[in-house]
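Every protein is a chain of amino acids, and every chain bends into a shape of its own. The protein below has been through that process, and both of its lines are reproduced in full.
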Amino acid sequence: MTKSPDEITPTAESIAQSATAASRGKLPPVESWNPPFCGDLDMRISRDGTWYYLGSPIGRKPLVKLFSSIIVKEGEKYFLVTPVEKVGIKVDDAPFVAIDFDTIITDRGPALRFETHVGDYADAGPSNPIRVVFDEDGQPSPYILIRRNLEALIDRKSFYRLVDRGETRLVDHEDWFGVVSNGTFFKIMRASDIAA
């Protein structure tokens, strides 16, 4: 007999079991699942990509990788979903951290292939754009879209490497400093702000 949503008490263990059964070693089809919302789980992803459960870091990398495969974003909220349950989690910034990148050759020319802290890869380009947000103190937070509407915060060392590869291009009658990947120019900042 199937439990009603009110009778389901989600735990990290129950989510992991359901996700393992549904994934079968590949990225689960979370877009096709429509499980009932079962409440919030005391789980958080910090800005540095560390996953916490009940206030303690999750030390098992395979478990973190499994959870990262079933995360979805709806509006500004994040959830873990399985075929049978959906739970809310807290994400301090982005659910992934891009820890490195390499250059590969594609049909559109050189591309930047980013790797996340959980072993996902994304080639920066039209489908996986890079964006940079500056806070009120002028500090950058660079991101790359990894999959669906989920981004990775590009770590500091990788961002410095990106800046080293940067070039200036005219975009909409204005000089911009940015990087090129997969034939697409991604703006980082106005060229006039570099000298400022």
The two ends are 67 Å apart (CA to CA).
